Amino acid sequence: IVSSRLVLNTFVWALVSAGHLCPIPRLAAMPEYKCAVNENNKSTELPLLRITGSVQENPHMRAFWASTISFFLAFLGWFALAPLGLDVATSMGICENQLYPPEKFPKRVAYLKYKNIKTEKTYCRYGKNDADKPTDCKLAPEGATGEKAEIYDPSVLAACVCTGGTQCQSTLADAGVASVASTIFVRVALGTLLERFGPSNVQAGLMTFGAIWVAAASLINAEWNFILIRFFIGGAGATFVTNQFWCSLMFAPNIVGTANATAAGW
Around 82, how many Cα atoms within 13 Å sit in the side-chain half-sphere? Predict the structure, then answer.
């Protein structure tokens, strides 16, 4: 029996040495994850505060928070210029009252239709001569003297008049359209990139690209570069796709909906 086993072992070793057989590799022990996982090593729970552990020990929650925080920062940069639109317009000098000072152009339609939201006062002291298509303010009542005789009140105008029909409003609207349009194209192309390079690499690339253009926003001095910069910043909005793809890789079907909604909607 001993000699037969020795012959068999010698024969198998000869086959392995000749390349006819491959030795069976030893399987590495599966790591102990911080989260409970299913047979596909996807987490079946979402413990938001369980953030300790190495990449091998806690890949699920590390991926969750990496996708969540990066997505939040990307959206912060994407929408940062929207509430600053009037300040940017003022710095570019495209406000209606910068292009057409009310002292020289008192009958501009933007002025005639203007109403201060805070004070409820209108540019036309006594109303405009036509509700829809005004050409001038109504005349002052007979006997009015001094300030009351003035039919225009430029003091009610905001620092930047940027109402409908003005060049300022048109520029801000075009920039908003450009910002949304770019993210649509990037989101469509992102599927292939995610499958090829993985979510962490793609997210890092999008964040870096967006950060460059957010920093370039400090150099805005004209309408064309304002629209162009908002167009490129819009690419950061595509981080939504990476966020959802990343979480879907890490969480099991019983919890992936909650993970995706929390990561993208908080």
Answer: 14
